[in-house]
Every structure is written in C-alpha cells, then in structure tokens.
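User:
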Amino acid sequence: MSDSETIFALSSGSLPSGIAVIRLSGPAARTTLESMTGVLPPARQARLSAIRDRSGQLLDRGLCLFFPGSASFTGEDCAELHLHGGRAVVASVLSALSLLPGLRAAEAGEFTKRAFLNGKIDLTGAEALSDLISAETEAQQRFALSNSSGRHRKLYQDWRQSLLNARALIEAELDFADESDVPGSVAQKVWQEVQTLRDAIAAHAAGYRNAEIIRDGMKVVIVGAPNAGKSSLLNALVQREAAIVTDEPGTTRDLVEVALDIGGMKILLTDTAGLRRAEGRVEAIGIERTLERAREADLVLLLEDVHRPVAAPNIPDVPLLRVGNKADRLGPPVERAVGRSEYDCLISAKTGAGLDALMESLRQSSQVHAARAGEILPFRLRHVERLGEAVSALDNALSKESDDLELRAEDLRIASHALGQISGDIDVEDLLDSIFATFCIGK
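Assistant: Predicted structure:
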C-alpha cells in the first residue's frame, strides 16, 4: 500500500437513507475537503458547507469534518462528508472524488487495515470490530465490544514477555555460566514458571468453544421419529412456515435451519429427518445427516409423540432435552401433566401449549454460554491454532533433558513467536488480506 494514496468510500450502509457518510483517509484528505467545501473546518468540529465538484457544480449541502492524523481512527488525516442519503447525491459525490488526483475507492476493510498498520489497533481489536459490525444479538454485541478493548493484546503480550524473560535467563546461564553473578540454579525456577504459564495458555484455549457459541450461535437440533412433530415445532417456535408439514412419514429429508434470538443469544435451530429404518437411499442420507448434525449440537431436543414414545438415539456427550409433543390429546392440562411426566417439557406444537416453558428451557441453556461473554476468551480459530502451537512448543521444552538448554530456549522462542502472531506484533503479513476481506467497504 502506497503512502501517497488517499482512499474514500461510503461508510454508512445501504441507500436510500436519511444521512449518508462518505469517509476519506490519506494525505490528500485535507486538500480534498478544502477544494470541495471551500474551507477546512476546525479539527473534530462539524461545519455545514456547500459541497461542489471540481468544476464548481453544487452536489449537496451537508456537514463536513476533519480529523488530523495523530487523532484519527486510521492514524492518517481523515475527512467525512455527511450528505443527504439519496442514491443520486451519493453517486455524484463519489464520482467527483474519483476524478481527483491521488484518490481511489477503498477496498473492503481498508480503513481498519490502515488503523492496524499505523498502530492504532492490534489484530484482535480489528477482528472484534468485524464481529461488532456483524453482531445480531445482545450477547454477540457485548462480546465483540468487550473483545475490542485491547485486553487480549495485553494478555498475550504479558505471556510473551514472560517467555522472553525466561529465555533471557536461560541464555544468560548458557553464555555466562562461569560468571559468579549468574546463579546456576536459575533454570529450575524458570521451568516451574514455564509450566504454570503453559497450563494457563492451555486453559485459555479451552474456552474457544464458548466463544464460538456466542459468536456463531448455539446449535440446537430437533431429532425424533417420523411424524413426532419436529417440523411443526420448528414452525411454532419461529412463528412462520419454515418447514413442510404433512402426515406422510419421511417428509423432511434435508436439514432445515433457522436462527432465533432467545434471551439475547443466537440459537441455530435445526429440523432433521425422522429417525427410522430408511425406505430409500435419499431418506437414508437424510437420517445420516441428522445423526451427524446431532453429534455436533450443543443441545439436542429429543421430540416424541407422547402416544408413541421411542428410544432415544445414541448421541454421546451432547446435552439432551426430552420433549413430549401432542400433549393436547392428554386428559389434564399440559401445565398439570408436566409435573407427572417423564419428559423435561410437555408441549403441543399444534395449540402452542407448553411452548413458553420450552423457550425458557432454551434460554436457560443458552445463558450458561452468554454469561461468559465478558470473559477473555479466544474468539477466532486462528487464535486457538497459535495458542496450540505455543502449548506444543512449551510441552517440548518441558519434556527435554535439563542440560539441553539450547534446544529448550529455542522451544521458548517458538512459543513466544506464536503468541506474538495472535495480536499481530510479528510476522502476520500473509494474514492481513484474509482478515480484512471480511469487512464491508468503508470500514
């Protein structure tokens, strides 16, 4: 990226809108604002101005702002034009900007990429901003905001500094073993601290599953026999016809997934093929997909017709909620019957009875994960991969003989290098395009 380039983009979303914001960043931001509005407003103060193209043609009247480089989001001179959000207005201003020398349209995520390259944020902060933009629920929003605070960078830098200090002591013992001021027993204490650090990194990495559920949603899979009412339950919960409902067994042969917001958590609810001995190849594939998705679930709703209960499928290590359907055919009201039932919930997908209790059970299950939204958790797969590399290197160091100090010091270097890659302190050039390509244009 050339330092002489000034980028611009619509940063306020789809049109038409009440207001549209066009953002500029780069060395020509100042002169561009002056040429199009006739004046440079005081730093970080909005001014109402006429906005004109290079020939003097009036394009719009709106607010203009200027942010000097040292105090801007990108670390460069930045400007903003707040326009009326009509398509023609925005198109004319973008066209006028494209005709000015030294300016070009921004690529996806390029403003945030420049902020990273100019040291305004680290990679974990950039990724958290991406999550904040795409947040759909309260838990996702809180998690992304918490992750954008720089606390991950501090944690990884502290761990990395501890490893650098340990390396320094070990290498000092190697290089100055004959000197009286270098204690020969220093290594023993170092390795005790390295073991403690290794355990802390491993425990931190283990929290990724909770972070993944908060970011991507809790996977809830409905399984059961044909005609148990799985599709009817899905439709009742989402309050629309998301799945086909018929009396014919085996109607659902593919997975139907919908997203719900329950208690501020994203819930990915999946309707599946009925579990029975398949009568055809297509249905057999659907049943296999059902079992595969159930094994990957965070919670399985085992739905049964209360008049025709079936044995639960063998799905190890997945929390299971037994739900009895078609309770409207029972004698007592559902609310009284549930206390005497072997089911966790008794419902009627047809009448809606018991659905509030089922939704509350889903909310309680999801809150176990939502409660961790304020914790420091690795929230991207690449974080976990680098943390795994660090743990593996530390395991190698700890398993070597005590007199292999050179090799053990190299293992510590590998571990500290892996930690530095997470926040972008070292050697991440090959990652930048893939990370910032996930952003929208103008961010």
